[in-house]
Amino acid sequence: MKLLEINNLHTYFDTKKGLIKAVNGVSLSIEEGRTLGVVGESGSGKSQTAMSILKLFENNQKIYEGEIKFEGKVISELSEKEMQKIRGNDISVIFQEPMTSLNPVFTVNRQISEVLMLHQGLNKKEAEARSIEMLKQVKIANPETVNKSYPFQLSGGMRQRVMIAMALACKPKLLIADEPTTALDVTIQAQILKLMNELKAETGTAIMFITHDLGVINQMADDVAVMYCGQVVETAPVDNIFMDSEYIHPYTEGLLTSIPRLNTKRGEKLDVIPGSVPHPLALPQGCKFAPRCKYATEKCRNEEPELKEIGPNHQIRCFFPVKRGGNK
Amino acid sequence: MLRYTVKRILSLIPVVFIISIMLFGLTKLMPGDPAKLMVQGGRPETYDARVEAARKSLGLDQDVVTQYVKWMGNLAHGDLGVSSTYQTEVKNVVAEPLKNTVFLNFFVLIFSLGISILVGIRSAVKKGSFFDQFWQVFSLIGMSVPTFFVGLCLIFIFAFKLGWLPSFGMPEQGLSTGAYITSWFRHLILPVTTLTVIQLAGTMRYVRNAMLEVLSQDFIRTARSKGLSQKVIVYSHAFRNALIPVVTIVITQIGMLFSGSMITETVFQWNGLGFILLKGLQKRDLWLVVSMNLFYVVIYLISNFIADITYALVDPRVKLD
């Protein structure tokens, strides 16, 4: 069953220079208990899509069009008060920066207990016990000590574990992980990813995993959505993207071929996608990727392609999907 | 913490000692002779003798070093010396004004802090709104206009034009207790308002900036993502962090409780410490001036010390060792 469904979502920033279309017609869905990996370059709108789900907006930001359904209920129309009941309870978030995402002047206990007392109606004592339990669950070796600590006394990896414990405290149905390991060392990153997979198996929480790292996607995700310029350009089960599918989006191909591999020879140049993401205030006409696409034709530059089904659960926004391993 | 406290207090002793030498030296360097100013008038033929006698009574006939040592020695016994202006002990001269000053500044502190915290927080939360812009302009004016000007404006409006309040001075003697207290407060309103406006202008901006800084931090977004209400986020998560820079300014203002403000007290003829100090300076009242200044120094050092300790209380990252 679909836990979360986003239909034609448009989230814009109203700035002095004009509307910035951070999310420009995103449609995607997350199945119960599955992990959706959202991948894309910086500025592709992946974080803004995630923030739209909980309406964690800046003052000048709002949803202009489209809807978000959670458990079959439209939540994109809810008031701030109603959203507060969902945040941290049904849907919670872990952020990229563990070093700065915890309040420096409150203890871990206070920060975890807070959600429990707010959403589950626990009293202080119960919340504290539960907080220690949560820290145990995220494999913190000395949960009692950590529970009493302030964030500055913990390392980055530990803080991210605390963030995860806090996010999972109320047993949410959906966990949004916004590049949760980007700021961590590679070894810590591996530990955290492993932990998240274990917790997912234990709790059955669905995860929206945002990253720009395809390697991480391969490790974490069941399904993948590739984003470019505020749009989903391809969505498919993870194996389709990495191996099975005959056709893929040229942008996905670009992302895949730009990963260094073990058999890449010394001195051999990596394939890179030429150019850079267009400025959000000067988006190209037609296909947004056309200016950087080596397969682009006149049609691509004039008309905008729709997201089209090309296989089971596999959709691509492209007139001419690339045959894998084809004319390279 | 205890070790730190003891260490800090001990380290204050040499500081006070050195500053006392500087203060004494500077005050002695002032031109003018308190003894001469003390014996003005009278018969000219006894003038020299009277100056000599005054000098002796003030202890100014000895050499500078002896004067200093005696002064410090007396201070240790709580003896602040004799005022040449009032011809009585400094202790007695400052007792009443000290009370008046603390009284005045107590209200200023309560109002300026209370208003600036409320307004500062709201301005930061509603940055760019009419509310914010109004108070920003207010603060700009309050910070650029001199104190005496604000005082004179208030006198002009509320005392001279509207006639609601006394323009300056202290309550008259010989009133019944009830009338005396009413009169006291009526005299208090304008100086309190003047000082509050001036204090408020700066403190408010300080609170606002501290809050703005905190509100843009990642952990505020985390707090929102947890489903906390705006109220909890602003007044608990954010303000608790903004408190750290705000504490410094608050503590220095507590020091101000005692220091009095020369200008406002003079404009309103409020018999406070600042008023007395100005009079003392005009009369070259050595012991009054030097003892009062040393008192200010001690107050200042103590409030700094309290600020340091308060840091450790509001910010767990600060450890005092």
UniProtKB/TrEMBL annotation, chain A:
State if Iron-sulfur is listed as a keyword.
no
Cell compartments where the protein resides: Cell membrane
Q: Name one GO cellular component term.
A: plasma membrane
Q: What Pfam families does the record tag this protein with? A: ABC_tran (PF00005), oligo_HPY (PF08352)
Please name the Gene3D superfamilies in this protein's record: P-loop containing nucleotide triphosphate hydrolases (3.40.50.300)
PROSITE patterns found in the cross-reference section: ABC_TRANSPORTER_1, ABC_TRANSPORTER_2
Q: Return one GO MF term.
A: ATP binding
- The segment(s) forming the ABC transporter domain are 4-254
**Swiss-Prot/TrEMBL keywords:** ATP-binding, Cell membrane, Membrane, Nucleotide-binding, Transport
What InterPro entries has UniProt attached to this entry?
AAA+_ATPase, ABC_Ni/Peptide_Import, ABC_transporter-like_ATP-bd, ABC_transporter-like_CS, Oligopep_ABC_C, P-loop_NTPase
Chief place where the protein resides: membrane
Keyword Transport in the entry? The reply is yes
Question: Which terms under GO biological process does the entry name?
Answer: peptide transport
The record's section on SMART domains has: AAA (SM00382)
Domain of life, per the record? Bacteria
The annotated topology with respect to the bilayer is: Peripheral membrane protein
Q: Which family does it belong to?
A: Belongs to the ABC transporter superfamily.
What name does the UniProt record give this protein? Answer: Peptide/nickel transport system ATP-binding protein
Which source organism does the UniProt entry give? Longicatena caecimuris
Organism lineage reads as: Bacteria, Bacillati, Bacillota, Erysipelotrichia, Erysipelotrichales
UniProtKB/TrEMBL annotation, chain B:
KW Transferase (keyword) present:
no
Q: What is its main location?
A: membrane
Question: What is one process in the GO biological process aspect for this record?
Answer: transmembrane transport
Q: Where in the cell is it found?
A: Cell membrane
Pfam families hit by this protein? BPD_transp_1, BPD_transp_1_N
> PROSITE patterns from the entry?
ABC_TM1
Stored CDD domains: TM_PBP2
Asked whether the keyword rRNA-binding is assigned, the reply is: no
What GO cellular component entries does it have?
Answer: plasma membrane
Membrane topology type, per the record?
Multi-pass membrane protein
Annotated ABC transmembrane type-1 domain residues: 98-307
Q: Which UniProt keywords apply?
A: Cell membrane, Membrane, Transmembrane, Transmembrane helix, Transport
Q: Which domain of life is it from?
A: Bacteria
Family, as annotated = Belongs to the binding-protein-dependent transport system permease family.
- Protein name per the record: Peptide/nickel transport system permease protein
Mind giving the lineage of the organism this protein is from? Bacteria, Bacillati, Bacillota, Erysipelotrichia, Erysipelotrichales
